[in-house]
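Chapter summary example.
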Amino acid sequence: MKKLVIVISLVTAAILFLSLFLVFRNVQQNTTDDRSSHAGNELKRILSEKELRVVVDYNTTNYFVYKGHPMGFQYELLRTFCDEKGLDLKISVNNNFNHTLEGLLNEEYDLIARNMTVTTQRSQQMDFAEPWGLTRQVLVQRAQNKGKPFKGAVQHITEQIELGGKTVVVPSNSVYVQRLQSLSDEIGEPIKIVEDSINSPEQLIAKVASGKIDYTVCDENMAKVLRKFYPEIDISVPVSFKQKYAWVVRKNAHQLKEYLNNWIRDFKQTSHYKIIYNKYYSDYSFQSFAMNDFNTISGGKLSEYDNIIKEISSYYKWDWRLIASVVMQESGFDSDAESWMGAAGLMQLMPNTAEMFNVEDVKEPRENIRGGIEYLTWIDELFEPMISDPAERIKFVLASYNVGIGHVMDARKLAMKYNRDPSVWVGNVEYFVLNKSLPEFYSDPVVRWGYCRGEEPIKYVNKVIDRFQHYRNTLPEVPDVALASN
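The structure predicted for these 486 residues follows.
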């Protein structure tokens, strides 16, 4: 009887296990099918929403801000692609390889745009677009100076096998970690890999040059550029063979991949592509901006007025990077700038605005910035009872700063008249600001301020907010700011 009970129990357990296995397999299959379905619809969504969400790495060549302008090899490729395809470019920054991949798989991003090398292992997780070119990883160490080591140099490595037992510092969760782990296996001796969660590849190269660390690893293209500024480094020892590098999309995003491939193949044949490539990888062009105080990577600044902007913005509870974007749009950080209409200074204050906010010397940077921020604050307080969402309200504030409060109020009245939302900018009030150049709208009885050249404030709002996002991507946040810091 006992044996019979045991047999029945085992059979029951086997049936239960088989049932759970089938359920798990079905769930897994459904999940895979769902992901495949989403991947197949990605291009349709991107084209319908007219928005491409991209993650890039923040470094000397791919993406940074120089003298207030977003720049970088990957940035300019993306900018060109989106401009030609009529897409809004939404850039996020993440230098952590694992987090970047997770964001792609979780549909936070549509595309990874960095020098991702094509490998069989990665191809199982993601799809690669048409390659942009070839690169390899190289060891960065102190160089020999006329046959002798630089002061402070350790053993000079000439072959990969000599790395056994050596300490190599690389960014945390980077592709370099994976490569060094593989190299350890290949040479049959462990390499001590130290993962640095603070410093970028460029900063680690600077540490090698100064003798603070002995070895790091970097992409050869970037290393060749940085060697011009750090003659103390040697990059002659490769730690990988040459590999293709390309943009990355989710697995099975076949339509998006082909859409990208068709453009990449054509664009790589153009003179425009050659200009972009030489801008960042030729010796002469890159030296003009790479190691400059007003490069967010090497100098961490936008302009000589950053400290003033930070101080006054903090006092009035504004994000200093938004104010800097306004200053860049208004004057290009030129305190002597004047417009044909009489606006002057960094924030291009009109004479009546300067008088209203007690700006005595409109060309004096501190006075001008204070007056401009007080004017923005005054506009913001005016709109606050009407538009509670700060992120939405800032669009009305910026448009008013550019074209005048009266025209924006007129557009709100038109929105109400035509059953649009007067508290929402895109597709609502924006539409009527744009069309206040047409007689049917600027002659409407609800309109007080008449004709408006509407394209200008629309472009102004878009450019300031877009640039603000680039500044947020590349510069640290100042605490205790409220408006537009969400």
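To summarize the output: The chain has three domains: 33-129+247-284, 137-240, 306-474.
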